[in-house]
Amino acid sequence: MKSVAVGFRAHSGWTALIVLAVTKGVPSLLARQRLHLVETFTYEFRQPFHTGEKMSLDEARAFISRAQKEARRLALHAIRKLQAELEEQDYSLDYCGLLRSSGRPLPELSKILASHSLIHSADGELFRESLLDASARCGLTVVTIRERELLDSASRILRIKPNDLMRCIADLGRPLGAPWSQDEKLSALVAWLALQSK
After folding, report:
1. Distance (Å, rounded) from C-alpha 42 to C-alpha 61?
2. Domain 2-143+151-195 belongs in CATH node 3.30.420.10
């Protein structure tokens, strides 16, 4: 079976998901999805730290813990399903690429809830961490990179000039038709990078 990679660019409550194969240096798309990481796609659940800000510390901790468990469960289910579907097509989903924020490590919950900027960071981090946890549990080799470093690193590792690389990524989505969003382009690029780690 041919090894392939999934790439993620996560947001609050959802992620762009791209599965990529590379043959003789040429990438091809195998799957494109928008994966929800909450069962109820409303602000309350997509922004658990924002919601927790209005609660007591104990209530917030319990609510955020439930949101994290749900996100991990949904991510795990989606990746396992994807692995099974790809296996039927003679592909082995072995790699994961995930874009990280450029933020610093988060402090304890009480300090997060006291800072609006940290609340935003924590909401995003919860969903990125859930995807990492699920990928590891599915046995994927995980590659993470800060989004602002992605293009330069990919250009250097793939030995393709940045403009040519972005043109290649833009062309990759053309057969799928619109929309081929920035989320999907960056997910494809981080998946391609993950495949280089083998």
Report:
1. 19
2. yes
